[in-house]
Design goal:
The chain is α/β, with parallel strands linked by helices. The longest helix is centred in the last third of the chain and has 21 residues, at 405-425. 55% of the residues are buried.
Length: 611
């Protein structure tokens, strides 16, 4: 959500910034802009995509070696040219880009209006930069000190970069609750929301901590905190390949990432799963593995797709570890007064590791003495740094906004955690442990087999691309898959879809079923199979159109369903890893046929770093 790129070095800044903004398009945005120094601060901004900003700049040849750019996801003020970032201060001596929300901006704005300042936008960001300008003028202090003082009066979240017309050799950056990384190159520095715009320039980065301020000059940088205390920066190496950020011959990142899943799941198991010898090693959760096994309760906090993977984990923890589990929406959990006891285990799941609501839920749980374990994809992300222990997905960068390989990567890692805990606790037999571990190791091959049905799924998609509603039904481990399938369709095709436990159909959704309602059943052979068959018969009796995901070789359901997609036989606890693949492809093809932007769906952001 929103993207920041800034540069200070010895090369022309504009091309580096524009290219960096393109790298950040996956985060989701509605407008974009750039600020550079050409004798004075100059701002160019535009509602729409980065390509439109590029066209606005046109053939201008900028020589400036300092600049910053932004992709905005609107919070305060509608998405238009005026509200796009960067923003000037009142007298245009400063410019700013900002991710986050300043919660007390209205109070500050009223104070500044009373002092004679005026505003040309509806944004909280213009208030912040004008407030900084005011402090700098009133206190007759440096910009660094004015920023520090201003941030002590700010409520909310921010990641900001500021340029100063009176000092074109300095950038000032700061963060609280919104991610920011500083890239250290050879005589040049970069600032960005994440490492993706930096890796073609440097692999050395500093992850800014909350309430830290980076003062970046041409020959050095230093970091202070909001109390004006010098901090010792820790330079880390980013292990990210440029090829991973390219489409690799696919039309869209989403399709590429769907087809990457055999490899990404294998990567999530590499160095951990040794099925041949019956060994499972989770180094990231070594210290707290016994605490996890001995816990009386596990709370899983997550949002969106990550919440669905948490539901699958709930079923597995309870079945194989005999530990009660609660799966909470982080956005609700943080605003309740939940009962959390010292020593409770909280598992936080987030692809980006930056989800604002999940971060807030973690802080709440930590304050009450809970042990926090993280399951995240992005190395060095905020959640990975504030949790006690955790496990990375190692599935590689996910650029498409609609999560695909991160979902299956989360499932893979969560299954590994469950099996590890069950073995420590002794609630699983050694033969069952080895059976599931062996089954897990075969999942990449089984997904590869499902992907061979892509053409068939594309054909089915064409039949239903004009539907107005979809219903997704599943039972047991496949109920969360139904939720995930419906979410994918909503996210990228803008078709209304709902996921339900199949048995709940009779408690409301059955009233919607007619010959125009496609009903997707995840109907693989498992302990609920006979019940799902009955549910399909109920839909057919009401002229519903059934698309069924079935186990290969099944003959009963194909005789009833209108369309069938086969998946390989699999243990029911691991089936979500396989049964979700056709639903990802179904949503992708329907969206493409409807002319939707699958990689950057409207109104959505990859990393939701504000409430």
């Amino acid at each position: 959500m929103c993207g920041i790129v800034a540069y200070l070095g010895n090369k022309p800044a504009a091309p580096i910034i524009i290219n960096g903004l393109k790298r950040l398009e996956y985060r989701g945005y509605d407008s974009t802009g750039i600020s550079i120094f050409e004798n004075s601060l100059q701002v160019y901004k535009k509602a729409g995509k980065v390509v439109e900003l590029d066209n606005l700049i046109g053939s201008k040849e900028f020589t400036s070696t300092i600049g910053m750019g932004h992709t905005r996801w609107a919070t305060h003020g509608e998405p238009n040219d005026t509200n796009a970032h960067p923003h000037y201060s009142f007298n245009q001596s400063l410019s700013i880009i900002h991710n986050g929300i300043i919660e007390n901006y209205n109070i500050l704005k009223k104070e500044l209006l009373n002092k004679g300042y005026e505003f040309s936008t509806d944004t909280d960001t213009e208030v912040l930069i004008t407030f900084i300008e005011y402090i700098k003028s009133e206190a007759n202090c440096s910009l660094e000190e004015a920023v520090r003082q201003a941030l002590t009066s700010i409520d909310g979240a921010y990641a900001i970069v500021i340029m100063n017309t009176n000092n074109p050799d300095q950038l000032i950056a700061a963060r609280k609750g919104s991610p920011m990384v500083l890239g250290v190159g050879d005589g040049e520095y970069f600032v960005a929301s994440d490492a993706t715009p930096l890796i073609e320039h440097t692999n050395e980065v500093v992850y800014l901590k909350d309430q830290e301020i980076a003062v970046i000059d041409r020959d050095k940088f230093r970091i202070i905190n909001i109390e004006d205390e010098e901090q010792t920066p820790v330079i880390q190496q980013v292990e990210l390949e440029l090829d991973a950020l390219e489409k690799g011959g696919y039309d869209h990142f989403m399709l590429k990432e769907i087809f990457e899943q055999p490899n990404s799941i294998a990567d999530s198991m590499r160095g951990r799963v040794d099925a041949a010898n019956g060994n499972l090693t989770l180094g990231g959760i070594r210290e707290y593995s016994k605490a996890l096994a001995n816990s009386k309760r596990i709370i899983i906090v997550a949002c969106g797709t990550s919440w669905h993977s948490g539901l699958v984990a709930e079923y597995m923890f309870e079945e194989y570890c005999r530990i009660p589990v609660e799966v909470e929406y982080a956005s609700e959990f943080r605003y309740r007064n939940p009962v959390i006891n010292e020593g409770d285990i909280v598992i936080a799941i987030s692809q980006s590791g930056e989800t604002a609501d999940t971060m807030a839920a973690i802080e709440l749980a930590k304050s009450k003495g809970a042990i926090i374990l993280g399951v995240v994809n992005v190395v060095g992300s905020s959640i990975s740094r504030v949790t006690h222990e955790g496990a990375y997905l190692h599935t590689g960068p996910e650029i498409g906004v609609a999560s695909t390989k991160a979902f299956t990567g989360q499932l893979s890692v969560l299954i590994q955690i469950v099996l590890n805990v069950a073995r420590i606790k002794g609630t699983i037999t050694e033969s069952k442990f080895k059976e599931l571990l062996t089954e897990l190791s075969t999942i990449p091959v089984k997904i590869k087999e499902v992907l061979e049905s892509n053409a068939q799924i594309e054909y089915i998609s064409d039949l239903f691309k004009d539907a107005h509603n979809f219903l997704y039904l599943g039972r047991g481990y496949n109920f969360p898959v139904a939720l995930e399938g419906a979410l994918k369709l909503k996210e990228i095709s803008y078709i209304h879809a709902e996921g339900y436990p199949a048995a709940e159909m009779k408690h409301g959704p059955i009233a919607l079923i007619d010959e125009k309602m496609p009903v997707v059943f995840i109907a693989t052979k498992d302990s609920s199979y006979e019940k799902v068959v009955s549910n399909i018969q109920e839909v057919k009796a009401r002229k519903g159109v059934v698309i069924a995901i079935v186990t290969k070789g099944d003959q009963l359901i194909p005789a009833m369903a209108d369309h069938v997609i086969e998946v390989p036989e699999c243990h029911e606890a691991l089936m979500p890893l396989v049964s979700v693949i056709p639903l990802q492809l179904l949503s992708y093809h329907i969206a493409i046929m409807r002319g939707c932007n699958v990689d950057q769906p409207r109104n959505l952001a990859k990393s939701v770093t504000v409430e």
